[in-house]
Amino acid sequence: MGGFAEYELVEGDNGGTALVLSGPYLVSTIGTIDQDLRDLEGPLATIDLSAITEIDTVGAWMARRLAHDHGAEITGASERAERLIGALKDARTDEDLSAPRLPVWERVPQAMGDKVFAARHGVYGVLGFLGALLISSASLLRHPRRFRVLALVRQLELVGVTALPIIGLMSFLIGIVIAQQGAVQLAQFGAETLTVNLVGRITLRELGVLMTAIMVAGRSGSAFAAQIGTMRLTEEVDAMQTIGISPMEALVVPRILAAVLMMPLLGFYSAGVAIVGGAVVGQFMLGIPFWTFLMRIQEVVPLHDLWVGLIKAPVFGLIVALAGCYHGMQVKGNSEDVGLRTTMAVVTGIFAVIVIDAFFAVFFTEVGWG
Amino acid sequence: MAQDETGRDLGRHERYRGEFPIVVEGLTNAFGEQVVHEDLDLKVRRGEILGVVGGSGTGKSVLMRSIIGLQHPTAGEIRVFGRSITDSDPEDDIGIRNRWGVLFQGGALFSTLTVGENVEVPLKQFYPEIEPDLRHEIARYKVMLSGLPEEAVNKYPSELSGGMKKRAGLARALALDPELLFLDEPTAGLDPIGAAAFDRLTRELKETLGLTVFLITHDLDTLHEICDRVAVIADKKVIAVDTVPKLMELDHPWIQEYFNGPRGRAALTAQALDELRKHMDEPVAAHAVKALDKANMNKDKA
Fold it and tell me: Which residue ranges make up each domain of chain A?
């Protein structure tokens, strides 16, 4: 079975030009010849297929298109070629393959408009979700027997206990970095001993809770969105509702409560480990003995710094878990949406935490806890 | 006039002329302790529609995945177009992957591409020398061949109904003009009208394009209407390969229950009605079939 797809123009006896196709006309052989055939100058009277050795739908399509473009007649088609050409006779080719797109000057404003419009919906959605959460919390308070203790314990473990190693490591390293970098700067004033104040105050007041919130958003907020989102896709959430279980009570409340309860503990733990990290730097680089460093913390850090951290922590936990659960519940359609919503849960969670943190910073300074 | 001056190998292929495009010999598949297939043999004839049936969990899909090289068998030999599948990885180029098309159960369309672009993917992969113009044309007529409306080419899979997704998946399976077509439960989840239309389409395409079809199905109507032969998988083996009427005479409990159970009988009745309709008018035909069916039932009871 030989060669390439080939063609030849033959002047016929009765004036018309005949196009003689020969060789295999297959999807695998036609790529190189297509452009030449497209550029053929007419007119053609007949297209002779009798020398074609193999033909598939692509070859048939080519013959049909040539016949159509030049108004030529197809001759010498084998039984198979005729059948294939017959199957393709209704095919039209004017539809564009890619999805229709507007031009840029229309698309950009439209996308912006959509975003703004959706933002309003988003705000309504989040507020509505918060409201639904409060209502189901209230109804749980009235019917405490409906509360899912086991689910809560499970989530406490996932959000809190299993996060201990990673948050510990992260905080330890942050403590080291703050102490070491701070010491370098403070040494210029000969005030290395103030490193203790720096590490103690910044970790208890700000960084411990903030970094923990970011870590929890990445670990648990995303997990909430993905879990609940997948359950929505597999209609588990719908099944729950038909059985009479409120998804809000069964899925959302335990997760949010777990985050709210665990965040202060994790935040305090994080600050503590960071201070230990600072003390290690003190011991080995600043000549402040380890235990002296820890004793000094007690003296230089005002108690209200601890309160600032502990008050912020549950709020951050609420925001992060709310973002995760809200976006999880918004999943609809396909699995792609789960990924999208998970990303959104983490991004909005972290963003909202940082915004609220800025408000807290101003607020606590104003009330005299500076 | 030779068109390819560079003289490079165009990767042409001849159509397979042998009698059995798929040969499975002594196939054993085991997942840990669980043995799915044991010493399974199967030969698929060129140009036939082979239906594959079996209870849930008997490894119909595993068999298909083994044949197309996605599942490495524990033991045994599988040859497609005379070439061994078993000694190669799924990504290896063994020169036959452009000669079959596979329709997975859910359609398995790429969700970020439109239907037309989905059909283009195998063309781009195997024949990059095809110009975009021709590729677009091929994609469009393939979509039409699979019985989708013209507007469907630029829709995303998420905008299609279940039946349309199956057809779009079929269009992609047909993109390279394969000689061999694998269909995994093509009519599952379709309404009876859609399922019948899909059956008709499969038959038509098989005849027009000269396909060999390996068809996994649970649909008794599909078996009766379009399958040339049916392979029954039970007890980890293919216990029988034959036409439906001959299978029904076999004395195997599963086969008897499958084809002569209430659903099997209903499908048979429907087919008988179709046949009779050709020769007499409708009410008479329906009456005749009912009478026949009742007679059969009574015979069973007695």
Answer: 6-87, 125-366
Interchain pair B153, A97: CB under 8 A? yes
For residue B2, being part of any structural domain is answered with: no
Distance in angstroms (rounded) separating the CA atoms of residues B128 and B142: 18
Question: Domain of B108: which CATH number?
Answer: 3.40.50.300
Count interface pairs A-B at CB distance under 8 A: 129
Question: What count of residues does chain A have?
Answer: 370
Residues in chain A within 8 Å Cβ distance of B209: 56-57, 84, 87
Q: Looking at the partner chain, which of B11, B138, B145 has a beta carbon nearest the beta carbon of A28?
A: B11
- Please report the residues numbered 72 through 91 in chain A whose beta carbons come closer than 8 angstroms to any beta carbon of chain B: 80, 83-84, 86-88, 90-91
pLDDT bin (cut points 50, 70, 90) of residue A1 is very low
Instruction: Note which residues in 62-121 of chain B have CB less than 8 A from chain A.
Output: 98, 111-112, 114, 116-117, 120
What is the tens place of the pLDDT at every residue in A187-223? 999 888 899 999 999 999 999 999 999 999 999 999 9
CB distance B10–A95 less than 8 Å? no
ipTM for the whole complex: 0.73
Residue B106: which domain range? 22-238
**Interface contact flag, A97 B114, Cβ < 8 Å:** yes
**Is B278 within a domain?**
no
Q: Chain A neighbours among B 124-153 (CB < 8 Å)?
A: 126-127, 129-131, 133-134, 136-142, 144-145, 150-151, 153
The pTM score is: 0.72
pLDDT at A238 over 60: yes
Query: Is the minimum CB–CB distance between A173 and chain B shorter than 8 Å?
Result: no
Decide yes or no: CATH 3.40.50.150 for domain A6-87: no
B123 touches chain A (CB under 8 A): yes
Number of domains in chain B: 1
Nearest residue to A66 via CA among A37, A94, A30, A86: A37
Residue B2: pLDDT above 60?
no
Query: How far is B65 from chain A, CA to nearest CA, in Å?
Result: 24
